[in-house]
Amino acid sequence: MLTLKGLSKGMLIDLLDRAENYLSPIGQPAARNAILTGRTVANLFFEASTRTRASFDLAAKRLGADVLNLDVNMSSRIKGESILDTIYTLQAMQVDVFVVRDASAGVPAYIARHVNDFVSVVNAGEADVSHPTQGLLDLLTIRRHRKDIENLTVTIVGDVAHSRVARSIADGLATLGVGELRVVCPPAFAPQPGVISGAKIFSDLDKGLSNADVVMALRIQRERIANIEGIPSTDEYFATYGLTRERMQRTAPDAIVMHPGPMNRNVEIESALADGPTSVIREQVTNGVAVRMAVLETVIETLEAR
Ligand code: CP
């Protein structure tokens, strides 16, 4: 599972349907299944994470797997061991699934090309390129609020140029046949032509929000910005591109507000909007565990079918 690009509509819907099975009502015990009993999942996060790492950990445990969370700062990589030697070492300990996050493009695919046939690699966030399980949890969140994806207008606001989240949700929405996808950003954060396929690009937030059904704010990815020339200050950014309750009055009346996290309150989104009744940000987190359970289940089924 390296990217959502190229995944069929049927496969996407199957993953979302499976994830629905792993959601339980609030207040009830979390859904469980023993399908990964005897399997080992290794979480290798070479870049910071709260949501993705914790949810893969919980997802694997709730499916009965043994889980290894490698402490990268205490691993032999800091002594100069290559990433492949780390992988081969853990593979020799019978790891079945590597969950990989890395700041460099191509690392998950590179690992996938080198592991044994009976080992799987799941991309948990790759530079600005791809974050497929985030895309899936965003699709699931939208689908749980709106069944008619082909009639929806979805607006993504913010640092699209450096966002793997935007790329993955755009890939998934395109496959599911979204009505209209809009991107709103200052010129410094505009994607290269064709990167967000089919999106209409706006620089005016009010126009981009007009009658939108789903609005997602993105964090400014400062860790991926080499040259800060042309990048607005946080105050300028909030004044021009910050999502607020006042600005959301231009959307469709029942529009939902999303954010993949981590959030910078009162920079890309007004704090009261993030915590308000139209926000589904915490639902996204809940759905993230269910989606990762669905992905791990599918990956193991695929390995067993070989
Ligand atoms: N959305 C997301 O990937 O969050 P983390 O960086 O906390 O995993």
Q: How would you portray this structure in words?
A:
It is a single chain. It contains ten helices and nine strands. The chain has helices at residues 9-21, 51-62, 83-91, 107-114, 132-145, 164-176, 205-209, 234-241, 271-274, 281-305; strands at 40-45, 66-69, 97-102, 120-126, 153-157, 180-184, 200-202, 214-217, 256-258. It has a five-stranded parallel β-sheet. A four-stranded parallel β-sheet has the order 2-1-3-4, sandwiched between helices. α8 links the parallel β8 (214-217) and β9. α1 packs across α10 (281-305), α2 crosses α10 and α5 crosses α10 (281-305). The radius of gyration is 19 Å and the shape is globular. The site of phosphoric acid mono(formamide)ester has 9 residues, from α2.
- Global mean pLDDT: 95
Uncertain runs are none
Percentage beta strand: 5-15%
Largest sheet: 5 strands, parallel
Structure summary:
The chain has helices at residues 9-21, 51-62, 83-91, 107-114, 132-145, 164-176, 205-209, 234-241, 271-274, 281-305, and strands at residues 40-45, 66-69, 97-102, 120-126, 153-157, 180-184, 200-202, 214-217, 256-258. By secondary structure, it is an alpha/beta fold.
Give keywords.
5-stranded parallel sheet; alpha/beta; binds phosphoric acid mono(formamide)ester; single chain; 4-stranded parallel sheet; 10 helices
Give me the secondary-structure topology.
Layout: H1 9-21, E1 40-45, H2 51-62, E2 66-69, H3 83-91, E3 97-102, H4 107-114, E4 120-126, H5 132-145, E5 153-157, H6 164-176, E6 180-184, E7 200-202, H7 205-209, E8 214-217, H8 234-241, E9 256-258, H9 271-274, H10 281-305
Parallel strand pairs: 1-2, 1-3, 3-4, 5-6, 5-8, 6-7, 8-9
